[in-house]
Design brief:
Elements lengths: L4 E3 L15 E3 L8 E6 L3 H13 L7 E7 L3 H16 L9 E3 L2 H5 L6 E4 L6 H10 L3 E4 L7 H14 L3 E3 L7 H11 L6 E8 L19 H5 L39 H4 L1 H12 L9 E6 L13 E6 L5 E6 L3 E6 L2 E6 L2 E4 L23 H11 L7 H19 L5 E4 L4 E3 L2 H5 L15
Parallel strand pairs: 3-4, 3-6, 4-5, 6-7, 7-8, 9-12
Antiparallel strand pairs: 1-2, 9-13, 10-11, 10-16, 11-12, 13-14, 14-15, 16-17
GO molecular function, one term: oxidoreductase activity
Protein name: Oxidoreductase domain protein
Keywords: Oxidoreductase, Signal
Length: 445
């Protein structure tokens, strides 16, 4: 998409304190109602789909889901049925929804304005860059990408094409996390000293049981750039669809390193995102050293880490500690502490949880109405939402560095957040680059 307009704004309406640099934007949606497609019709894809359907009914976020894409035609048909049911319940007699097995065919459709990408992690960069190059706004499930170089390429593609990418780190759209981050950012309890992040751990084991590939699944396309392995439903995703058109349990690929790095990216991408947001290092910063130890017991086809603990050090002196636990983030400051999680927030001075930033203080972007709504509204207005592509990339960088350290037995990695390179460790630096299968490669950004 050609450069058409420049936007430099502080997003004063609801985003005081967040100043975006001058960027090239594709401009607001070319259609009054954005035409949206869904790539990846599984558990998270259908959850995001329901959000886009509901929020797209609002005038300032007007959107209509018109297409679905998945190499599993059964899942694609399920998502299509969700869409048709939604619009028929609102009085429409006939609802047309296009189906695509291959994402490239969907993204070649010029009438499409935006896509939700909710595929296995190895696909995110290829599909995201292809969508950005086609001028489509993107809601990208976390983690942003599988590797750090992929994230760098996706950031470049998004900015060069001037589209809005919202990372699915929905905690930024929660009042609990925003209020606690405002406490930290404004130093209402003094300077930040330490952050403690807790994330859940994977459990269970699954012996390998080779199965015939279902007729409804293009398994080679599902694998994409990931290594070719014999099919087993237990290591891909369930073929059972519940009566409410949802899926039971987490898909097996989340516990296989060919497709996902485990909870360090699965939940780490949520919790480290909040830590970075609170520190103000989410757009162009990060730690200067990372070390992490993880356990990799024999669990059959499940081979991601289980128990782990780690540290990341910032040049500000802040230490970010990580461990297994109930998902949450605790900030330890000079004069007290505050903690936030999906169910609430606490503070050693409870009054600060209700305090509103004064003029001249930092007031972090306030996303109201839900994460998908914030994305749709931002795309209509030609600007960033609450969780831009850089935020997802810088957070995922911490996750990946922790994973590399785990694989190297807990070795401390020196990291330069400006050049985005590992310092003085050629073995670790090589691990930043992950090969792709066959002819798959990143599109030109």
């Amino acid at each position: 998409m050609k450069r058409r307009s420049f936007l430099q704004t502080s997003l004063a309406a609801g985003a005081a304190g967040l100043i975006l640099p001058s960027r090239v934007w594709a401009g607001p949606s070319k259609n009054g109602t954005m035409q949206v497609g869904l790539i990846g019709c599984g558990r998270m894809g259908c959850a995001n789909l329901r959000g886009v359907l509901a929020k797209g009914m609002q005038a300032d976020a007007s959107a209509r889901v018109v297409a679905v894409c998945d190499p599993d035609t059964r899942r694609m048909a399920n998502a299509k049925a969700i869409i048709q049911s939604f619009y028929k319940e609102r009085g429409e007699a006939a609802v047309e929804v296009k189906e695509y097995e291959d994402f490239r065919d969907m993204l070649a459709e010029s009438s499409l304005d935006a896509v939700v990408i909710a595929t296995q992690d190895r696909w995110h960069a290829i599909q995201g860059i292809t969508a950005a190059n086609a001028g489509k706004h993107i809601f990208m499930q976390k983690p942003l990408t599988y590797s750090i170089p992929e994230g760098q390429a996706l950031v470049e593609a998004v900015r060069r094409n001037g589209i809005t990418l919202q990372v699915g780190s929905q905690q930024r759209s929660s009042v609990y996390f925003r209020r606690v981050c405002n406490i930290v950012r404004n130093e209402w309890l003094g300077k930040l000293k330490e952050i403690v992040v807790e994330i859940p751990t994977d459990k269970g084991s699954q012996p390998y049981v080779e199965m015939p590939v279902p007729e409804n699944l293009n398994y080679d396309l599902w694998l994409g750039p990931a290594a070719s392995t014999p099919y087993t439903e237990l290591g891909v995703h369930t073929q059972t669809i519940l009566d409410n058109r949802s899926y039971k349990g987490r898909p097996g690929w989340l516990q296989r390193e060919d497709f996902c790095l485990g909870m360090i990216t699965g939940w780490g991408s949520h919790m480290y995102d909040i830590a970075q947001w609170a520190m103000g290092t989410d757009m162009d910063g990060g730690p200067v050293s990372v070390s992490s130890k993880g356990a990799f017991p024999d669990r059959g086809i499940f081979n991601v880490h289980v128990d782990y603990e780690g540290e990341a050090h910032y040049d500000s002196g802040v230490v970010l500690r990580s461990k297994n636990g109930s998902a949450g983030v605790k900030f330890i400051m000079e004069n007290g502490e505050a903690r936030c999680w999906r169910g609430g927030m606490t503070c050693s001075d409870p009054e600060l949880l209700r305090r509103q930033p004064a003029d001249g203080e930092v007031s972090l972007y306030e996303s109201k109405g839900g994460h998908e709504y914030d994305w749709l509204k931002a795309a209509h207005q030609g600007r960033d939402g609450v969780c831009p592509v850089e935020g997802g990339h810088r957070t995922n960088t911490i996750c990946v560095l922790h994973h590399i350290s785990m694989k190297l037995g807990g070795r401390e990695l020196k990291w330069d957040p400006k050049t985005e390179k590992i310092i003085g460790d050629s073995e670790a630096a090589k691990m930043l680059h992950v090969p792709m299968r066959g002819d798959w490669k990143l599109p030109e950004a």
